[in-house]
Amino acid sequence: MRTLTLTQVPTEGGGYLGVIVVDGDRVFAAGGTHHNPTLLVSEDRGHTFQRWKTPPEIPGLRDVHVEGDVVWVAGEWGRIARTIDRGATWTALRPAGKDNSACLYSIMRGVDRKLWVLGDHGLVLRSRSTKATATKFERVENVSTARLLYMFVDGIDTWLLDSAGELQRSSGKEFVDVPLKAMRNARPLCALVRTPRKTLLLLGDGGLVLRSTTDGATWKKISIDSRNDLEKLMVTRYGIFIVGAQGSLLVSHDDGQSFQGLATAVEAHLWSLAEIGGELVIGAQGGIIYRIDRKDLAEVLRRGYVKRDPLLAELAARLRDGDEGAELVLEDALKERELL
Length: 340
Fold this sequence. Notes:
The chain is mainly beta and 340 residues long. The chain has two domains: 7-293, 7 Propeller (Methylamine Dehydrogenase, Chain H), CATH 2.130.10; 294-340, no CATH class. The chain is built from three helices and 28 strands.
């Protein structure tokens, strides 16, 4: 197995980087804990990063949400905050009240265009208005009492994932439990995505990958050569990528029916990833950010299809070798095959 090069980007971070968000040419990475919160921002598509000041009321960040000049963060002590001046000043809120015991893990727009916030003890909050400067939140009933880690907005549906291995779904009314018989042993669920072929892929700790082609009615466990905790997954033009503990990096070229491990020579826990400008940006332990070059990713794609689809393999090879004209042709071929 050829080692895939992960190039470290110089940063002034700390703690782990649990989320990366792309907004146009900007890339935001947030994390940190134990009174060392980290918010890193790139203005050049992830090639360089600067550290923004963070709200003093939040000892660790867990998520970031960007809407133009308004940047929201959520994290420890049940707090969220927003800035409109690149972190120079922050407006802090306590959406869950005065209780500081709840950590908040996710903040994003829901199907209803309101801000949703997830946290400990089954906490789900929703802003009462759709304004970017919303200040009032209300609780949303759901069936979890555990730590809610991730929300996936999928058309008219909202999915919630928690640390007890419970998956919930709402189509605009109440949340209902989604059975996961294929999981067998309950474990934290960390990420969910729907592929261009409408397949659902669900990640969890201990090397868990579940796949559903029945819109969540039934699930199949996908065998992988890893028991590491898996954190994030993303559909890209180069395949479906997963990152996780101990430098875990996996890729699928068959709509999640199988995943192959990629050698990285990296031991750090990989927490988050995003695609921008045809390259991958990965957030890791210790405030580290890695990049994977487009040429290396094109070679991953070429090897994935060299036997099963010679045309895709040829286009990937052309892109790897610097043929810019191959990019659009490759994307059209991927879309035609419902891979992008």
